[in-house]
């Protein structure tokens, strides 16, 4: 969304006649006002429009992650909510990460984060929330895109995990 404000600034010069000031000043003033209006609108737009849409867009992945709740609870694991995401740790979640995800400390599926234990979740929360943001942008296309990126890395002889574009983005922000 872009708000365009037409601003007319006139100065009384040249014998009382009114002239427009130079166009650079008008452009600069208009840019400043547009920026401040956008800053004012941005927070509520994110809060009331972008975030709910992001949750909805990521929902298929979140539901996949939610499938871990019952097996984890039945096998001695736990569930908690932190920073708008569900965190599942221990029990089956831990077994899954150890045996099927190359011993990863944590893994994100939509708004669900699986962790080996509470300490792993605390340590990796910032990094995993970069993935939460990626799910909110890519929605149902995130997992295919992630898999494709890993596949292309493997084909080029790179590391399918560390060179994956989504991991590089997350590690660049939170190593
Ligand atoms: Zn990661």
How does this structure look, described?
- By secondary structure, this protein is an alpha+beta fold.
- It folds into two domains: 10-56; 57-173, no CATH class.
- 59% of the residues lie in helices and 15% in strands.
- It is globular and about 70 Å long.
- Mean pLDDT is 87; it is low at 4-12 and 15-19.
- It binds zinc ion.
- The site of zinc ion has 4 residues, from helix 4 and helix 6.
Oligomer: single chain
Can you tell me the number of structural domains? 2
SS element count, helices:
6
Which stretches are poorly predicted, pLDDT < 50 over at least 5 residues? 4-12, 15-19
- The biggest beta sheet, please? 4 strands, mixed
Describe the strand arrangement of the main beta sheet, using strand numbers: 3-4-6-5
State the total count of DSSP E strands: 6
Describe the structure concisely for a colleague.
By secondary structure, this protein is an alpha+beta fold. It has six helices and six strands. It folds into two domains: 10-56; 57-173, no CATH class.
Task: Provide tags for this entry.
175 residues, two-stranded antiparallel sheet, binds zinc ion, four-stranded mixed sheet, alpha+beta
Helix-strand blueprint:
Layout: E1 10-13, E2 17-20, H1 23-66, H2 69-74, E3 78-82, E4 85-89, H3 91-100, E5 106-109, E6 112-115, H4 118-138, H5 142-155, H6 165-173
Parallel strand pairs: 4-6
Antiparallel strand pairs: 1-2, 3-4, 5-6
Bound molecules: zinc ion.
Zinc ion is lined by residues 127, 131, 167, 170.
């Amino acid at each position: 969304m872009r708000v365009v404000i037409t601003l007319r600034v006139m100065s009384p010069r040249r014998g009382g006649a009114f002239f427009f000031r130079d166009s650079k000043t008008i452009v600069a003033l208009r840019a400043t006002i547009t920026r401040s209006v956008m800053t004012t609108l941005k927070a509520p737009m994110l809060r009331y429009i972008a975030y709910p849409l992001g949750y909805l867009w990521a929902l298929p992945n979140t539901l996949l992650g939610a499938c871990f709740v019952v097996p984890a609870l039945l096998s001695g694991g736990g569930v908690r909510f932190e920073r708008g995401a569900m965190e599942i740790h221990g029990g089956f979640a831990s077994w899954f990460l150890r045996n099927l995800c190359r011993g990863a400390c944590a893994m994100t599926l939509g708004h669900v984060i699986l962790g080996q234990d509470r300490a792993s979740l605390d340590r990796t929360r910032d990094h995993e929330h970069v993935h939460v943001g990626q799910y909110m942008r890519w929605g149902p296309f995130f997992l295919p895109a992630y898999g494709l990126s890993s596949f292309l890395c493997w084909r080029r002889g790179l590391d399918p995990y560390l060179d994956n574009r989504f991991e590089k983005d997350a590690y660049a922000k939170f190593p």
